[in-house]
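Quick start: read one record
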Amino acid sequence: MEKIRTITFVVNNAKPGAAELTARLEKLARDAGVKTRSTIHHPIEDQALAGQDACCIIGGDGTLLGVVPQAVRLGVPVLGIRMGNLGFLATFSPDEALEKFVPLLQGAYQIENRQLLECCCPGNDKVVALNDVVIKGEDASRLVSLSVEADGEFVTEYFCDGLIISSPTGSTAYNLSAGGPLLHPDAEVVSMTPICPHTLGNRSVVLPRKTHLQVDWKQSAAHPQVKVDGYLTLRPDIDKESAISISPAKKKLALLQSPGHSHFAVVRNRLNWK
């Protein structure tokens, strides 16, 4: 792979040890002739990744998710370092990062292209999601009624706490906690999982990735709320249109991994599989 000559560190200083690790990695990069810059802003500044060969996240999956829109728009690969025990996207531990960082800068890495979802919410700009799009009511104590169509064909009407539309990457996040299926990140599919459905027959549905989903809000007395990757909240303008659409995004996110990276090794470790 090509050598990395410029890199931006996105640092979550709320994580213990993040600032110290950043300083050590920046020194390693500079000693290797790589130009560096860093930011602690969340969300990151507009164009913070412009002209960069890579972006290094030091924090966790949440920090990484906040970088996704800009990284995708500018085509910048992302490397994730977790400052804790759990991380399906930030796969490098601090020790692994220190050991493998210089070889990685010199081209010893592989790229995983992760699928994205595109969400079109009435009254809002289109946004992309790496993990999921979650549709709930603003009043979390009340059930919601959601009618779903897939490529124009009626699927079902859910009466539930909410609905999770998940990419394969996001299947290990909220989707998994809600009882949804665990999907391999290379699977060309999207999953739809109701949260605490009123009818026990309502279960997760796995659909082809190319499926265009339309979720229609059926309650005029309440207002929907759409969460994108857990950090971005959208309030649909249901006076204009009651339907929220989710479809496959044209672009993908490039994740930097070490050679021989194993998805199942990560899953076994994080989920305590034998």
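The chain has two domains: 6-114+252-271, 117-248.
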